[in-house]
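Human:
Class, as today's exercise, you are to examine the entry below, and be ready to discuss the fold:
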Amino acid sequence: MARPADDRTVTEIWEKVLKKIQEDDPVDYDKLIKDPAELEILKQAVKDTTFECCCLEEDLKDKSKDIETCLSKYLPDDRIQSIKGGLSIPTIQIDISETHGASVEGRGDREKTYSATTSVSGQSVETRDLSSDSNIATTKFQQYASIVVEVITMAWSTVGIVGAIKPNMKGIIDWVAGNIESTVSLRLPIDQFIISWNKASGHFDKAKVIFDLLKKLYNAGDFIWKVIQKLCEEMTWYDWLKIAVKIIAMLLFSFSTGGFVLIAEIAMVVLSIMELGEMMYTFITKIQNVDKLDSIKPPTPSRSRCCALL
């Protein structure tokens, strides 16, 4: 039986989730309020998610305990494996490669130039020459978008959601990238995330950095809500809401309790990708791509070209 404190927590979380739906999605909120049966099903989903978090919190507060062992007390193995693969849900892959630039006047070598190839499900969909600040910035925002979407889908893997994404991933990444580019309250937390990730040493420290990013993105208005909605755009309004309320309930619980459960689960995910090493294209590669893009400088016009323009 749940502790009385857990019952109060469930009520508080449910009220906040319902308010979130009303504020961020008033159309679907009106549909939901008019259907008591579906409203009750969503309330039960929030209750189950919150109770699960309460149970896990008791064990995961102790960092000396093995995370997977703690999770196995409450979750089946397939749930645990799904969580461990939370940062392996595919979005897009950007490969940055060096190309042959123009000869440097007065020297026998060539300037370093780069191109970026974007792939979805192993198929190349776009190649961009990184010879201008504009193209570098566009690629960087796409990589930012990929990182953000994967952090959000990792969050929903922690509440048992699998195999839900069947959208136009490239279109969604472009939409997210556009929002990041035009919104300082989104862009700055991601800038800081990259810096903090590179400074963090172990998987727990890196997990805290991801947790902090999720919290800042959640506080940036309806952004996370809209991303979830985009990812579930092929679903009915009710099916996508059921996914959304479980994720939001978990995030609200985490933000109000110090995040012991979510940080521990993220730490397990981060450790799993760190163990893959540098031979595999992973979430870590995407962060390294951002660092690489920041280091690329557009080629300088040759002296003869500059003279011709005078």
User: Anything to note?
Assistant: The two ends are 81 Å apart (CA to CA).
